[in-house]
Amino acid sequence: MIPPIASKFVAGETPAEALDHTRELNDRNVKVILNLLGEHYHDRGPADEDAEAYLRLLEGIDGSGLGACVSVKPSQIGLDAGTQVFRENVERIVDHAAERDLFVWIDMEDHTTTDATLDVYEELARKHEGGVGVCIQANLHRTADDLERLADVPGKVRLVKGAYDEPESVALTEKSAVDAAYEEYLEYMFEHFEGGIAVGSHDPAMISLAKDLHDEYGTDFEIQMLMGVREDAQYDLAEEYEVYQYVPYGGKWLSYFYRRVMERKENLLFAARAIIGG
Ligand code: FAD
């Protein structure tokens, strides 16, 4: 069982717990992106197992009436075991979702995976128009070119600042430079994309910019935040905008929880407060 301190950031170990959490959020007008925790499988076996777990999860969402989609990590479903393994598994998942009219996001991992991830994404987005989305990281030097490439692809793009420690040769490393790049790319997306923009950020400045750009260009967008982070803001924003909470679940919760605490030590305090009701 997940200890209460971690359950602020992770919905549970089982799909049933993740769907219960989804129901509670849907009642507050927040939709959900479900992510089964797991990454960096070097063998095909565990990658296939997690791909199959996603197929079952999609079956669970289907017919439940819940507002939920899924997000998969390339290295969780086979990228480290070979691009072809990843391609086959993500295609199985997206096909299965499309049959049920459900949406699949592809998370973005470190820069060595960007080309393979975007190639597979573009192929599937053209096959299942409107059924798949990909994450793009504002810290990478290549992102302007990638956004230009993706502007005409019929899918969604989640813009994030970037969670991986990347070398200076490929990425901006100063936080202020990443913030400026995020703003620039957000503006590019609102101007050049037909819709399908996801603002994957907790940063009030980025969300406020997105609202202004929406007013200026009229392009559709959604806001995405992580479970356990600025949840009150999520509920408030959901009164006016489309808001998704990214909800991790599964047995591999410990390293995820550790990462949330390491990136922001106050998270431990928030989690503790949530338990003692302070
Ligand atoms: P930050 O720069 O971390 O914070 C800016 C401001 O936001 C802070 O000053 C504060 O005002 C507010 N804030 C941030 N955290 C908190 C908090 N805990 N409590 C209160 N206020 C807070 N990265 C990837 O590399 N690949 C992915 O596929 C990916 N997917 C993501 C999906 C979603 C839905 C989200 C939200 C993030 C994802 N990320 C991903 C992570 C992302 O790259 C950033 O590392 C992460 O979101 C932190 O950046 P930020 O924009 O939220 O703002």
Which key phrases capture this entry?
278 residues; alpha/beta; TIM Barrel; 10 helices; 47% helix; binds flavin-adenine dinucleotide
Count of domains: 1
Output the CATH class name: Alpha Beta
Strand percent estimate: 15-25%
Rg, Cα atoms, Å: 18 Å
* Reported CATH architecture: Alpha-Beta Barrel
Strand order of the largest sheet: 1-2-3-4-5-6-7-8
Which ions, cofactors or small ligands are bound in this entry? flavin-adenine dinucleotide
Q: Portion of residues in helices?
A: 40-55%
Q: Quick one: biggest sheet?
A: 8 strands, parallel, barrel
Number of helix segments? 10
Task: Give the assembly state of these chains.
Answer: single chain
The 3D shape can be described as globular
Q: What is the average per-residue confidence, as pLDDT, rounded to a whole number?
A: 94
Write down how many β-strands occur, each being a DSSP E stretch of 2 or more residues. Answer: 8
- Output the structural class: alpha/beta
Q: What's the SSE pattern? A: HEHEHEHEHEHEHEHEHH
- Contiguous low-pLDDT stretches (5 residues minimum) are none
CATH level-3 fold name: TIM Barrel
Distance from first to last alpha carbon: 23 Å
